[in-house]
Amino acid sequence: MEHSTIPEENDKYKIDDSKVDGSKSQPRSYRVEALAKGLRLLSFFTAETPTLRVKELVELSGIPMPTTFRLVATLEEEGYLERTIDGQVRPGTSVLALGFAAVQGMDLVQTSDPNMRDLHARTAETVNLGVLYSDQVLFVARIPRRDGVLSDAIRVGSTVPAVFSSIGKVILAGMSEDELHRTISQTSFAGRWGPNAVRTMDELLEQLSSARSDGYLLQQESAIPGLSSIAAPIRQSGKGIVAAINVAVPTAEYTRKKLLDKILEPLLVASREITLRLGGSIQY
């Protein structure tokens, strides 16, 4: 009696890579060449080369100009690249979002969490943790003030130019002069920010000098009108300053003296404890 063969339930998902002529099966490639080329373009952006011209991407990748132009246009539309004011391109917010997903698993965020919560409990104010991404600060953790008085413009995954952020300035203060000038250019000061925002390298250098000597930086209405903040550095073993933590408050509720009297000491305690947990050294 002839029996029919009943296919297994998952047979329809199996792929037969054998050739009709019976020769040895060859592995099938599932590579999507256009996607690979787009990812290759993104790989050329580094901390040392945060922006590139399309012509430079052509030279680096060996991909023809028409193809590169289309890839860049597509990556721009999807938010993975963005244009600078001088026509160059740099990684966009979608890349930052992917980076943030990776950052969430970093030791820095996990290690800082209990200290951030303690700082928030002691001050009842918004606590932020940020790292440097090119000439921007990327906010990787945040515990907001409960009454929602502060602007929602800053969220986890948001970026702010480092020259306008207390977190950014504290991190920049740990750089050598050469490294600072490679990171910050005149375009870093572009845009409309707070009324007390620095606008020149000389003004920035003056604030960085104070941050180095004081061990913290206090600013009022530099990044956002109506917002004041005070930041302190976080150091990691073998890497120097890798991040900074700040407390942000409504300017209307805090004079400079009140910020120093109420917020500075618990902020410094948090930054020192996170630094020690990361194996960094405390500098007084």
From TrEMBL:
Gene3D superfamilies: 3.30.450.40, Winged helix-like DNA-binding domain superfamily/Winged helix DNA-binding domain. Residues 1-27 are annotated as: Disordered. InterPro entries: GAF-like_dom_sf, HTH_MetabolicPath_Reg, Tscrpt_reg_IclR_C, Tscrpt_reg_IclR_N, WH-like_DNA-bd_sf, WH_DNA-bd_sf. Residues 94-280 form the IclR-ED domain. Residues 1-22 have a biased composition (Basic and acidic residues). Residues 32-93 form the HTH iclR-type domain. It holds the Pfam family IclR_C. GO terms for biological process: negative regulation of DNA-templated transcription. GO terms for molecular function: DNA binding; DNA-binding transcription factor activity. Keywords: DNA-binding, Transcription, Transcription regulation. SMART domains: HTH_ICLR. This is Pca regulon regulatory protein. It comes from Acidithrix ferrooxidans.
